[in-house]
Structure formats: C-alpha cells, structure tokens
Amino acid sequence: MEKVQKYSQHFRIDMPELLNRVDNDRELVHDLLTIFKVEFPRHLQALHDAVASKDMTQTRVVSHTLKGMLSNLSITGAAAAAGRLEQLAHDGAKESLQDAFTAFELQVQGLLPEMETHMAEVRR
Amino acid sequence: MKILIADDEALSRRLLEKTLERAGYEVVAVENGRLAVEQLSRPDGPRLALLDWVMPELDGPGVCRAVRGRQDLQEQAYVYMVLLTSKESKKDIVTGLESGADDYLTKPFNVDELKARLRTGERILLLEGRLVEAREMMRFKATHDALTSIWNRAVIMDLLARELVRSNRESVCTIMLLGDVDHFKLINDTHGHPVGDEVLQEIARRLLLSVRSYDFVGRYGGEEFLLVLNNCNPEFAAARAEEVRKVVSSRPIQTAAGALQVTMSFGLLLSKDWGVRPVEELLYEVDAALYAAKAAGRNSVRMALPKLPSTELPVHTGEAVHPLR
Question: Could you give the 3-state DSSP secondary structure of residue B268?
C-alpha cells in the first residue's frame, strides 16, 4: 500500500482504492479515466432521456451500465445512486424515478473536472 | 492461455483486458453476446470466457446456453464460462449457473479473486483435456488393431456393411478385397513371431499406401486383411486388385531377420455383381475366391462371380484376373 499515492479525501473517486485494484498501473487508470470522459456524457444523456420519457427498460439498462462504470472507478456514492435508479426501473416505480435521477445528478456533478485532476495526477 | 472477454461497456472491457494480459492471458475482447458465441464456437477459439451478464443482442446466460447447446451437438471442447454480474440475489445466481455458466463473479471484481477463479477454470480444463485424451486413446484402441493400427475386425466389418448399403442405394460399386499373407506360418516358424509381427505391420502400411484416403483397410484375422474400396469403376477392379497385390510383393520387407520376400493372395468381389446380399454371404464368397487364389499357386487374385442366375445360389467361380505365375 505504500506505493499508492495519497489523494485528498474530498474527491468522489477513491483513487487509492482504484490504484490498489489495478496494481498501481497509472497508465491503465489514465486509460480508464479517458474512456469514462468519452462515454459518461453519452450515457448520462441517455439516462436523462429515458427517465424523462419514463422508459423503464431503457432506464434500467442505462443505469445498470453507469453503475458498472462508476463501480469500476471506485466512485461508490454515484454507483449506489445508479443502482437505486436501476432498482426503481426494475420495480416499475415511475413516480420515484425523477427524484432518484436528481439524486444521481448531484452525485455525478463536477465529476468530469475531477477526472482532469486525477488524470494529471496519474500522468506525473 | 486464450481467454474471451465479452462486455459491452468499454471501460470494464479495458480494465479486464489489461488485468488479464498482465496475468499472462491472451485476450480476445468483444462487445456483445452474439460475437462471444461466434468466438467460442471456433475450433481454435478461447476455452475460458468472462461474460458480462447484461449485454446487447445476447446476454451472458444466453451465451452460456448457446455454447452449451453447440457443445452437446458437436462434441466441441469444453468452454469454462464465468459470468460477471452485479446481480447478487440467490435467484439470479441460480439462473446464471443453470444457463450453463461454471462460475460467477460480482462487479466490481477483486483482481486476486478473479485470477483465483480463472485458475480454477484452467484446472478443470486441464482435467477435461486429460479425460478427452484418455477417451480418444480408448476409442482408438477399441477400433484399431493393436499390432498394425489399422481398423480392427469389428470396425472393418461395420464399414463394409455400411458401404454395401450405400453402394446399393446409390447404384455404385464397392470392391471387397480379402487378402492373406502367403506362407505366413513358415515365416513365424522360421524367424519367430516378432519377425512375423514386423511383416504384418509392414504389409498393413503398404496396403494403406495402396488405397485412396477414403477407402478402408482392416485386419480381418491373423494374417488376413480386408480392403473396402468404395465407389469404384468395375472395369478397373481387377487392375486395382493387381496393383494392391504388387504393392506387397514388389520389394522385400526389411525385418530383424533380414529382408524377406513376402507375397499375398487375394479374393476379389464387386458388389454390383451380387446385388443386395447379406454381408456374411459376400464374405463367404470372397473368402472362397481367396481360397481359389491360394489353390492356384498363391501370389494371385481371383474374382468371386455369382453362378447362373437360374440356380439362385451364388457359387464361386474362381475366375483368374491375371495369368498364373
């Protein structure tokens, strides 16, 4: 664990945990963050559209994908919020969907700028 | 070892890819279930697979069912499949395993756990490989002659019966050639059984070389060999039989006792001359033709022909296919 660099606690990505999981492969972490930066906005938009149209199937599929992406990057709070959305869609709870989506948006707000910081860190 | 990753999510795919490459695997990565089935159905495809549960076109359990279905039908090599899932309920796990998955792993995965589970898969594949090897060995022993490695009596008889049925159905001609090594007892008595065995092995090899890849050569008895040549032109049957005879006698056989000149006598029978007859009856007739070849001085071929149709009884004529030497 000594080899894993310390990061500020206010970040939503648990970077020490992530680096530990990938055996401190900083290049891989950089790759993953790059993929996330490209993929995440597309999925977020798809989720927004699915929730707005109360499309339960699409909401379930997209929130599942987002949950996986966020979990893989050790962004646990946002992953849990995505999981909540997936469960609601699975249960057909249309009336709770919008609130859950708002909660999810709060969790992921500012995530992309945070990525930039981490990408710069792992590049050092 | 080759491993397949099937995951529609690019980030997860990259993470798995790099993790497994670092662990020494040769990684093949695809983004949906249909492509996964394609990869796993290839003869040289991966035999270890990590499948995401939720995927477009075909989900992970669907891939498992498709692969297992093909394996049952085609006797394909076993594929060890691990489902990657964030589903943790007992019901989901049971569904996954019942679809044909060997194991499952919850996401986000722990690298050490992933490697350990894949090592379990490798151990099972290794064991399966050994079992298949043993089964193939047993299958070979059950169908081949231990001394000469050509078809054994049971199999050559079976192949003959099938070819006769086929030739009747398709109105083509199958040639039966029953050969016996001349004076084989003398070889055994003079030089010993190990030398006799060498002679039989070399004869089997020469007989195999004398026929087409889709013809059959089997050991019928001690020093008797049965050749089944399918879809032959009857006009060239005698010439073909002569070629086979000459392949054996053309040059001496090198043995521990020195070079031995060995010859064979053959009975020849063309299925089109006999119509639909029991295999035993045709074997009886070709054996009688072989006996006639022996009686005519050996190292020769005699053809079995039915007697006049009015008698309704096939009687061997022992017709010579070449002048006696």
Answer: strand
What ipTM, to 2 d.p.?
A: 0.82
Q: Looking at the DSSP assignment, which residues form a beta bridge with residue B104?
A: B83
Q: How far is CA B135 from CA A109, B42, B138, B139, B153, in A?
A: 61, 22, 5, 6, 20
Nearest to A68 among B14, B19, B86 (CB): B86
**What residue ranges in B54-210 does DSSP mark as E strands?**
80-85, 103-106, 173-181
User: Does A74 contact chain B (CB < 8 Å)?
Assistant: yes
Q: Enter the DSSP assignment of B235.
A: G
pLDDT digits (tens, 9 = 90+) for B132-144: 899 999 999 999 9
Residue with token string 């290794």: B126
Alpha-helical segments (H) within B144-219: 153-170, 184-191, 193-210
Helix (H) or strand (E) holding B218: strand B216-219
Q: Do A72 and B108 touch (CB under 8 A)?
A: yes
**B223 assigned to active site:** yes
